């Protein structure tokens, strides 16, 4: 019995002092909780959260290893964990009127994980804006076509709005934006687009605060293709227009430009609209009742202020190439109704794209303003980018 008692005592493992309660004899922690503390701002369940400047995830007594933020459609929000692992912030603004879910994980110095999940809803804006864009989605345009956005409200936070718009091209080329006033933003490369270029415009405006209390509501991507190169040069003194396509002159057409009392602007102008027939009323462009022609054929707009290149059936055939008689437009010989397939105006209309360039030289007028139409090419690259 004495021997048995000693054996049992030996198998008991010693006294409480040696048992190492809560761990083992090495001093390592067993199943203790992680010391890392993850905090998500805004707090869980918050509503009416601002779309920028609020969302942030932090870790105390540890480092973040994973942070995912998704909207209710599963679209992830891009973000970045700081170099020290102490915080995460989104790389761009959030969308308005949207439920977001946050999942974050951090590790403490002993490698133990701590997770945090939260959700919140962004504000519902009372006032919104959109950008009307040119050119149209999936269109094929000329080499001079810029991306032009006209906003429905004046923008007082232009840097934030411009940052939310991404214009890319294949093949890649540097593209920069330029503001005309507070409601128009155009993008272009330094030189005309190369033929065949594919351009994509990503409008990530949903939730952007363009001015205090006014938020964008567009989340849209549009694309267009650059067609062949066509640049037509009007010599207002010689009264002729030379059409160069892909580096080769294909036509030399007699024209009539603005009369001495109403000269045509000089400069690079982009065709922005095409009409097989349109009405031209002098009263709408400051010429009173001097003319009102209800059926101008083959008209293509070159400026917002009313400069067109169009067909002309009312002047004699001998006018073209010999006299400048228009009210500031460039006119080509045509027939009423535009039915003559051999008329120069019809040929030019059918062989022109929106986005083609018409350059006017040697006119007794000033250079056209870059915001008068899609005519930002009249600014140097240094002016455009400053």
UniProtKB/TrEMBL annotation:
Q: Which UniProt keywords apply?
A: Acyltransferase, Cell shape, Cell wall biogenesis/degradation, Peptidoglycan synthesis, Transferase
The question of whether Cytoplasm is a record keyword is answered with no
Q: Which InterPro entries does the annotation name?
A: Big_10, LD-transpeptidase, LD_TPept_cat_dom, Transpep_catalytic_dom
**Matches recorded under Pfam families:** Big_10, YkuD
Segments forming domain L,D-TPase catalytic: 230-361
Its pathway, per UniProt, is: Cell wall biogenesis; peptidoglycan biosynthesis
Entries under PROSITE patterns matching the protein = LD_TPASE (PS52029)
| UniProt-annotated catalytic positions | 310, 329
According to UniProt, the name of this protein is: Ig-like domain-containing protein
